[in-house]
Amino acid sequence: MDGVGIIVDMRLTEFHQLIQDEFGHGQGNWILHSHVPAGYDRTVEQLIEDGLSLRKLWAVLCDDFDVPEERRLGVDRGEK
């Protein structure tokens, strides 16, 4: 296989950083512990424990909270 069509998932630390950057500490924690994404019957935290793709979960959260397309990739931190 040549790699075309393969979607690489994100790391948990990257997912948490996206949550923090977009929603801040307080609302971000609430989202992780209390929000039940559209189409699911469990909280974000439970879905992570269940092994749901973090990339998919981030996309669902972006839709749930109307995150603009230009912010869905997170903050550009430049090269370190």
TrEMBL record:
Top-level taxon in the UniProt lineage: Bacteria
Pfam families hit by this protein: DUF3046
Entry protein name: DUF3046 domain-containing protein
Organism: Corynebacterium halotolerans YIM 70093 = DSM 44683
